[in-house]
Design a protein that fits this description.
Layout lengths: L1 E3 L5 H10 L5 E3 L5 H6 L2 E4 L17 E4 L9 H5 L4 E3 L6 H16 L2 H9 L16 E5 L3 H12 L3 E6 L10 E4 L3 H4 L5 E4 L13 H6 L5 E4 L8 H9 L5 E4 L19 E3 L10 H18 L16
Helix pairs in contact: 4-6
InterPro entries: D-isomer_2_OHA_DH_cat_dom, D-isomer_DH_NAD-bd, NAD(P)-bd_dom_sf
Organism: Kurthia gibsonii
Keywords: NAD, Oxidoreductase
Length: 314
């Protein structure tokens, strides 16, 4: 049995059922222990499984996570089993790269100010616009998503520096550094962009010292995970004008409380974790699932793509 803990659109369900007509497929909007006990394959967004559910996974062989983030899953418990866990790493790269580029261009080309003057019925031609061409962007996490952002930024004449744990070369990066070189490299960048996952190594990676090392005209964007930087550290950096502006799609606490002081900062755009949203999201996810399903049914388990390293958390 294949057990979905969410209910896709009717057209997507029809496509799946035609693709594997011999399978029993159950769709629900919550985790049912009885169905979980019967399931051989579980399809989930990865936010609804608890360690307690592990007791019901008697027949489970493969968990397909229709998301890139897996930090809310019982990773330690899963690591003690032989259950294959795979996700849709990289699926967000198109919509997220477009979202990031839209925010960067909006900031550089003064679009918020232009819109404000229109609402005020003002014809104001003096704007603080500047060119993206020739800027340097430091991209934290140049994997599938970060590399796509690097590709688009390079097309605008931006110099790209990638930063990951090892400093190993990544696509569309003009230069690479490791985490331990970050503090020394930050002063060179006008744009600092993070798409890092949440792991033990990335949690609170950016400290007050890192923001003090940035240029006062830096544009900081966090589109990875909210625990990259503590909320109070981010607020302090923005209030003290240690950086010029920030755009955050993720936050330490989500949903962001309505009384959060972040909403009132004039040099911050609050994006409510929407950068990856796309009408094609599940369509792309299920394309990955169907291809991996073929490998799974043939017993070619090593051919299943995007298998997760449960110890590393990604």
């Amino acid at each position: 049995m294949i057990y979905f803990t969410f209910d896709p659109r009717p057209d997507l369900k029809k496509d799946l059922e035609q693709f594997m007509p011999e399978e029993q497929i159950i769709y629900e909007r919550k985790v049912d222990n009885n169905h979980l006990n019967e399931a051989e394959i579980l399809v989930t967004y990865g936010e609804d499984l608890t360690p307690e559910h592990m007791k019901s996974m008697k027949n489970l062989k493969w968990i397909f996570v229709a998301s890139a983030g897996i930090e809310k899953m019982p990773l330690a418990e899963l690591d003690e089993t032989e259950i294959i866990v795979s996700n849709v790493r990289g699926i967000h790269k198109k919509p997220m790269a477009e979202s990031v580029l839209a925010h960067i261009l909006s900031y550089y080309r003064s679009l918020p100010a232009i819109y404000a003057e229109q609402r005020a019925h003002n014809w104001k031609r003096k704007m603080p616009s500047k060119e993206l061409n020739g800027a340097t962007a430091l991209i934290l996490g140049p994997g599938a998503i970060g590399s796509e952002m690097g590709r688009l930024l390079q097309a605008f004449g931006v110099n790209t520096i990638g930063c990951n744990r090892s400093g190993k070369q990544a696509d569309y990066m003009d230069e690479m550094i490791a985490f331990n070189q970050l503090l020394d490299t930050l002063p060179r960048a006008e744009i600092v962009l993070s798409v890092l996952p949440s792991t033990k190594e990335t949690k609170y990676l950016l400290t007050a010292d890192h923001f003090k090392a940035m240029n006062p005209d830096t544009l900081f964007l966090n589109f990875g995970r909210g625990d990259l930087v503590a909320t109070n550290v981010l607020i302090e950096a923005l209030q003290q004008k240690e950086i010029a502006y920030a755009v955050c799609d993720v936050f330490e606490q989500e949903p962001l409380p309505s009384d959060s002081p972040l909403y009132d900062l004039e040099n911050l755009t609050v994006s409510p974790h929407v950068s990856s949203q796309s009408s094609r999201y599940l369509e792309r996810s299920f394309d990955i699932f169907k291809e991996n399903y073929r490998h799974y049914r043939k017993g070619d388990y090593d051919q299943i793509t995007n298998q997760v390293n449960l110890k590393n958390g990604y």
